[in-house]
């Protein structure tokens, strides 16, 4: 919901901040005080058009900043797509600054944004009723979801079945499109795949081969160094030289000395035995060193062969995968693809049969959905008719127009030609006739702002529990009504505000006294200046504003008493 709105240098407003609460927020004030400026400012935040004429006279720029508290996940996908971090507590800050030169600067949570990004977010956050902007009910494409949300559980179940089948259906259609390319393209694809398979097969690759080759190359490249190290080790351990005895000779000499004294103390015997074990081990190690030395051989032909083999693997890796295993995996995949293409006609026939079966299933569900929607539509029409009658639109007619855009059944030839839409085959549109003798027409064709707002209020009252737009704004909703109708409008706004934040501009006391939060918009006039101010109303100040609306310039004790009575009655209604 909207928790704070700061407006700077717009029309008569120098700088004001309004903090709407949850529930029903009512804005009142004299005509011309600047109530419409608040709505225009909110529209600016929602990506609506702004004119430089909105900028306060004598100023170069104007700005609006709004703080929202969003339900979890409500705009997460949009923020992620914009690369904007979502705050943990759901706070969303949107600002827009515009100048007399026409420059716009938009920000979302401090990050630069575009007007279209604001508009996309706005459609998720606020519906403004009374102006022909940001109204979900005026978007015909949304009507089918609204109708379905009003329907029984059967519609939800059928839509789930339909979505599951449609996913399979579209997957098979994509596969058919791949397999049914033109003949030349198909042959080129076959040649390319066959070339790639032959190239990989010719190399006769083996898993782990590259690592083994690299190890062999390293040994061959360092054969001289290895042979020298082994010979030196053998000399030190076994042969020795003229200057220095070998390791084995030295150990044997030490062993002879120890054996000579082993009879004197058992400890010397134990040491001699341990040294004798070392002597045996050293002889074995020396033999291994000699054998390894004798097998070391520098083979330039073998090294060249290994280098060529590694080069072959590297060239294939650049084309088909970073490792031998990846190359072999790729080869397996394209072998299957080639087989599918060669078997194309057979596979196409199989897929077309499956598509036909899915088409029949989808068409059957679409017809059942159509029947369920017709039931829901008749009920919705009756419910909205009652609401419109309460709102003094007794002659208005509301109709849910449902057109099934598809055949009665699947023919063998036309099975894959049906254009299945995301929600079935129905096109749904809400139609209205405001006055007797007028034909039914789309909601967007309604000219009167007051009629539009009341129709929206009627629909929102019925769909309040299903509508997930957090904040609703009603402007001009009291045009042409009074008395009991005004009371009903107030009650319906109160009902909707139990599930949504509602902001409403009104001139009627019956509506104003229903608010959870009241704000007075007033124009303060000086000798050469005029400025709009906003202040919250409570207690006596609220009573006096209700009395002003009731009595105009002349406020009597009777008017004040009437205002107190209306506020008391409104509290009773809300408590119930």
UniProtKB/TrEMBL annotation:
The RecF/RecN/SMC N-terminal domain sits at 2-522
Q: Which PANTHER family is this protein grouped with?
A: DNA REPAIR PROTEIN RECN
Record-level GO cellular component terms = bacterial nucleoid
The signal peptide stretch is none
Q: Which UniProt keywords apply?
A: ATP-binding, Coiled coil, DNA damage, DNA repair, Nucleotide-binding
Spell out the coiled coil positions from the record: 334-401
Q: Which family does it belong to?
A: Belongs to the RecN family.
Q: What does this protein do?
A: May be involved in recombinational repair of damaged DNA.
This chain belongs to the protein called DNA repair protein RecN
NCBIfam families annotated for this entry? Answer: recN (TIGR00634)
Q: List, in alphabetical order, the Gene Ontology terms for molecular function in this entry.
A: ATP binding
Residue stretches spanning the membrane:
none
Q: Name one GO biological process term.
A: DNA repair
């Amino acid at each position: 919901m909207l928790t704070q709105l700061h407006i700077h240098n717009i029309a008569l407003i120098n700088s004001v901040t309004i903090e709407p609460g949850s529930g029903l927020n009512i804005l009142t004030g004299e005509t011309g005080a600047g109530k419409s400026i608040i709505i225009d400012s909110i529209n600016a935040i929602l990506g609506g058009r702004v004119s430089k004429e909105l900028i306060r006279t004598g100023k170069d720029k104007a700005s609006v900043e709004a703080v929202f508290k969003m339900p979890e996940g409500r705009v997460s996908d949009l923020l992620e797509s914009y690369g904007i971090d979502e705050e943990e507590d759901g706070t969303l800050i949107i600002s827009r600054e515009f100048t007399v030169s026409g420059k716009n600067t938009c920000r979302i949570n401090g990050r630069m944004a575009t007007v279209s990004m604001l508009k996309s977010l706005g459609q998720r956050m606020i519906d403004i009723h009374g102006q022909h902007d940001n109204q979900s009910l005026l978007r015909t494409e949304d009507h089918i979801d609204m109708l379905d949300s009003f329907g029984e559980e059967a519609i939800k179940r059928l839509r789930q079945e339909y979505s599951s089948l449609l996913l399979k259906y579209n997957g098979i259609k994509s596969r058919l499109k791949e397999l049914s390319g033109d003949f030349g393209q198909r042959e080129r694809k076959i040649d390319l795949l066959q070339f790639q398979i032959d190239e990989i097969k010719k190399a006769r690759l083996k898993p782990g081969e590259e690592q083994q080759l690299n190890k062999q190359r390293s040994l061959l490249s360092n054969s001289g160094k290895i042979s020298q190290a082994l010979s030196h080790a053998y000399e030190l351990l076994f042969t020795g030289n003229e200057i220095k005895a070998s390791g084995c000779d030295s150990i044997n000499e030490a062993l002879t000395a120890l054996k000579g004294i082993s009879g004197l103390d058992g400890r010397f015997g134990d040491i001699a035995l341990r040294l004798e074990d070392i002597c045996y081990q050293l002889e074995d190690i020396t033999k291994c060193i000699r054998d390894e030395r004798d097998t070391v051989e520098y083979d330039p032909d073998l090294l060249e062969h290994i280098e060529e083999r590694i080069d072959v693997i590297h060239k294939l890796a650049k084309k088909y995968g970073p490792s031998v295993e990846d190359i072999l995996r790729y080869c397996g995949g394209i072998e299957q693809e080639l087989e599918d293409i060669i078997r194309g006609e057979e596979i196409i026939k199989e897929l077309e049969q499956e598509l036909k079966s899915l088409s029949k299933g989808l068409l059957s569900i679409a017809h059942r959905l159509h029947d369920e929607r017709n039931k829901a539509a008749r009920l919705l029409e009756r419910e909205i008719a009652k609401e419109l009658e309460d709102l003094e639109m007794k002659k208005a007619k509301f109709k849910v127009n449902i057109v099934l855009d598809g055949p009665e059944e699947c023919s063998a030839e036309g099975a894959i030609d049906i254009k299945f839409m995301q929600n079935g085959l129905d096109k749904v549109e809400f139609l209205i006739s405001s006055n007797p003798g007028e034909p039914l027409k789309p909601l967007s064709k309604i000219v009167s702002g007051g009629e539009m707002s009341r129709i929206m209020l009627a629909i929102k009252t019925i769909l309040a529990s299903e509508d997930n737009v957090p904040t609703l704004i009603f402007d001009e909703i009291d045009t042409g009504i009074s008395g009991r109708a005004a009371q009903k409008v107030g009650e319906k706004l109160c009902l909707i505000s139990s599930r949504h934040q509602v902001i409403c501009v009104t001139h009627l006391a019956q509506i104003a006294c229903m608010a959870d939060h009241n704000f007075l918009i007033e124009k303060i006039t000086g000798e050469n200046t005029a400025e709009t101010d906003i202040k919250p109303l409570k207690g006596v100040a609220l009573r006096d504003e209700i009395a002003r609306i009731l009595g105009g310039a002349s406020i009597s004790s009777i008017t004040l008493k009437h205002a107190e009575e209306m506020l008391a009655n409104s509290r009773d209604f809300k408590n119930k």
